[in-house]
Automatic annotation (TrEMBL):
Keyword Glycosyltransferase: no
Highest taxon of the lineage: Bacteria
Named cofactor requirement(s): Mg(2+)
The protein's name: 3'(2'),5'-bisphosphate nucleotidase CysQ
A GO biological process held by the record: sulfate assimilation
Keyword annotations: Magnesium, Metal-binding
Positions contributing to Mg(2+) binding: E42, D60, L62, D63, D171
Alphabetized GO MF terms: 3'(2'),5'-bisphosphate nucleotidase activity; metal ion binding
InterPro entries cross-referenced by the UniProt entry: CysQ/Inositol_MonoPase, Inositol_monophosphatase-like
Species per Swiss-Prot/TrEMBL record: Sphingobium algorifonticola
Length: 224
């Protein structure tokens, strides 16, 4: 937020500087506090040692660089702890809104929307999401970063976040940890669990939704 406010950077340059500052802070804090754990950050070269650790921190210092650089609020900071490949602990900050959502501080989720509300990318809505929304009669809510979308479901602003356009572990580990702690349905689009700390961190798709609509979303996906 200080980088955005000081006026020296704009657009992509602002995003790059915000990424750099956040990554430096988080990497230093985590390696100092938890030196025996592994660490995977989008902005840090991976040396492979994390693959031999049961506990691995997975970090996205700035999720939604474009939105951050445009002065929007729908960007996030992700910090998660994966234990034996599962997203166990997580926090997602929404600094533009002054919020931090955590897996250890639960909040009540408002009632399900009527009609259902589905989150999609601002610039390139996934074909699968559009098709499922049409089958379920859901209204579309364009939004920026993955973390902002997932937390919109946790906050009760939407009911379904379905992504198929390609992500990496740092894009969704912290959001998944927070969403799972809040009782949301979090899986791959084929129904398999989300697995973290793999050699290849590419994790292209996921579904985060209210448990009440999980079967309906799965059925809609199965018909595609």
């Amino acid at each position: 937020m200080q980088v955005r406010a000081d006026g020296r950077f704009e657009g992509k340059a602002m995003g790059a500087e915000g990424d750099r500052i956040a990554n430096h802070y988080l990497v230093e804090a985590l390696t100092t506090a938890r030196p025996d754990d592994g660490l995977l950050s989008e902005e840090r070269k991976c040396d492979g040692t994390r693959l031999y650790r049961e506990r691995v921190w997975i970090v996205d210092p700035l999720d939604g660089t474009r939105e951050y650089g445009e002065g929007r609020d729908d960007w996030a900071v992700h910090v998660a702890l994966a234990i034996r490949g599962k997203a166990r602990v997580g926090a997602v900050a929404l600094p533009g809104l002054g919020l931090v959502l955590r897996s250890d501080r639960l909040q009540p989720i408002p009632p399900l929307g009527n009609p259902l509300r589905m989150l999609v990318s601002r610039s390139r809505p996934a074909a699968e999401a559009l098709a499922v929304a049409e089958k379920l009669g859901a209204v579309l809510i364009p939004m920026g970063s993955a973390g902002a979308k997932a937390m919109a479901v946790v906050r009760g602003e939407a009911d379904i976040y379905l992504h198929s356009g390609g992500q990496y572990e740092w894009d969704n580990c912290a959001p998944a940890a927070v969403a799972i702690a809040h009782g949301l349905h979090c899986v791959r689009l084929d129904g398999l669990p989300l697995v973290y700390n793999r050699a290849d961190p590419y994790l292209p798709d996921l579904l985060i939704c209210r448990a009440e609509v999980a079967d309906a979303v799965t059925a809609a996906l199965g018909g595609m």
